[in-house]
Design goal:
Rossmann fold; seven-stranded mixed sheet; four-stranded parallel sheet; 13 strands; 35% helix; 17% strand; elongated
C-alpha cells in the first residue's frame, strides 16, 4: 500500500492539530494507506525528507492532538523555488507517497497548486486543506482556525470592556491581527452579546481617516468618560499606505508597526485624553483556552474529507465549507479547484461593514456568531 504525507504551512492555529487528527484517523480507517507521515517543518522538510511517522502512535496519544495548540510537526514560510517542486516529486516517489495534503493559507495553497502541476503524469494526488486565523482564503465560507481566533478576540474584548467600564477614565485602543483583512477585528463585536463591547471597530477594508477617528473617539468619550476601540493591524490611509510603516517585510510575510500605540498616542496628543494601547498579538492565535468547539469539529472534518476525497481520486483541489441556507447553522464540505484559491485574498464584504467604516453590521454578527461555538458565561448586572 502507498503512503501519505501532511505538510503544514504558515502560522499555527488552535485547531491545526485537530485537522491533522482528522487526516490520520481517516487514513487509518480506510485500510488503503501504509504509513502516515508529517513533514517536520513545512515545505522545506519535504525537500530534506524530515518526516515523522504517525503510523504506530496509539489512539490515546493521537487524541491529544485535539487539545494541543500550534503544530506538532512544525510549519514554515520557506520560499519554495520553481525547481524545488520537481525535487519534491522525486522525494515523494522515492518514499512511495501517493497522497499529499497541504494544510495552510493562501501562500500554502499556491505551493499546493504548484506541486499538483509538477505531479501531473504521476499517480500522486495533491489536496489542499484551508487553515488561517485571518479567514482570508478564497472560496470557502470560512477557514478552520478563524472560529477559535474570533472566540478569543470576542472574549478578550468583553473582559477589557468590563475593566474599562469599572474605571472609565481613558481610551483603550486594542489591536487585532489579520493582515489585509478585518475578520478578526470584526469578531470583537460579538463581545456585545453580554452588553459590553467595543465602541468602535476599524477595518483595513476601509481607508482610515484620522480626522473621523478623532471625532468618533471624542464623541464616545464625551458620552461615557471612556472608550474601547478595536483596530486592525493592517489599517491603511486613503493612498493605500499603512498608517504605521511595517517594521519588516519578506514576501507576503509582513510584521506591522504598533498601530494601537500609534493611535493611542494621537488621542493623547490631539485630544488631550488619557489613552493606552493593548496588543494581544499571537496570544490568541493558538489559544486552547478559548478554542471553539465548532471550529475544532470542523477542522477534524476538513482533514477527514480531504483524505476520503483523495482516496476516491480527487487531486488539484482544496476542500472547504459552504454554508447551508436557513436559520440553523450547518455547512457542507465542498471541493474547489486550487487555481481558484491560490494567493487570492478574501476580504470583508461591504454588507458586513457600516457606512461610516467604524463598525460592523448585524449581518456580520449573525454570520460569525455560530463559528465561535456557544455563548459566554453571563455577567452580573446591576440593572
Amino acid at each position: 500500500m502507498p503512503n501519505l504525507l501532511v505538510v503544514h504551512g504558515g502560522a499555527p492555529t488552535a485547531v491545526l492539530n485537530a485537522t491533522l487528527y482528522g487526516v490520520l484517523q481517516a487514513a487509518r480507517e480506510s485500510g488503503q494507506v501504509e504509513r502516515t507521515y508529517g513533514a517536520c517543518g513545512g515545505t522545506q522538510a519535504v525537500l530534506e525528507e524530515r518526516f515523522f511517522d504517525f503510523s504506530d502512535c496509539p489512539e490515546s496519544k493521537l487524541k491529544l492532538l485535539l487539545q494541543t495548540p500550534g503544530s506538532v510537526i512544525g510549519s514554515s514560510r520557506y520560499p519554495v523555488q520553481p525547481e524545488d517542486y520537481q525535487k519534491m516529486v522525486e522525494v515523494l516517489k522515492r518514499r512511495d507517497i501517493r497522497y499529499v495534503f497541504f494544510n495552510g493559507g493562501n501562500g500554502t495553497m499556491d505551493a499546493c497548486g504548484r506541486l499538483y502541476a509538477a505531479c501531473k503524469g504521476t499517480s500522486i494526488r495533491v489536496v489542499g486543506i484551508p487553515k488561517t486565523i485571518d479567514n482570508d482564503i478564497a472560496m470557502t465560507d470560512h477557514a478552520p482556525g478563524y472560529g477559535s481566533a474570533a472566540r478569543y478576540m470576542a472574549a478578550t474584548v468583553r473582559e477589557v470592556a468590563e475593566d474599562i467600564r469599572s474605571l472609565p477614565i481613558h481610551v483603550c485602543v486594542l489591536e487585532a491581527m489579520g493582515r489585509n483583512a478585518g475578520w478578526i477585528a470584526a469578531s470583537s463585536a460579538l463581545a456585545r452579546d453580554s452588553g459590553s463591547g467595543p465602541d468602535l471597530i476599524y477595518l483595513p477594508e476601509r481607508p482610515f481617516r484620522e480626522t473621523e477617528f478623532l471625532e468618533d473617539v471624542q464623541r464616545i468619550y464625551t458620552q461615557k468618560g471612556a472608550a474601547l476601540v478595536v483596530v486592525s493591524e493592517g489599517l491603511t490611509d486613503e493612498t493605500g499606505a499603512s498608517i504605521v510603516p511595517p517594521i519588516f517585510q519578506s514576501g507576503r510575510s509582513v510584521y506591522y508597526g504598533d498601530v494601537s500605540a500609534h493611535l493611542a498616542g494621537i488621542v493623547i496628543r490631539k485630544l488631550g485624553i488619557k489613552a493606552r494601547s493593548e496588543k494581544p498579538g499571537i496570544c490568541g492565535r493558538a489559544s486552547i483556552a478559548w478554542q471553539s468547539p465548532v471550529d475544532r469539529a470542523e477542522a477534524v472534518e476538513a482533514g477527514r474529507q480531504a483524505v476520503q476525497r483523495a482516496l476516491q481520486g480527487s487531486s488539484g483541489v482544496m476542500v472547504g465549507f459552504s454554508r447551508k441556507p436557513g436559520s440553523e447553522y450547518a455547512v457542507t464540505v465542498e471541493e474547489f479547484p486550487l487555481e481558484q484559491v491560490m494567493l487570492l485574498e478574501r476580504k470583508m464584504p461591504d454588507a458586513f461593514i457600516n457606512d461610516r467604516g467604524n463598525d460592523v453590521t448585524d449581518a456580520f454578527v449573525q454570520w460569525c456568531r455560530p463559528l465561535i461555538g456557544g455563548e459566554f458565561p453571563a455577567y452580573f448586572c446591576r440593572n
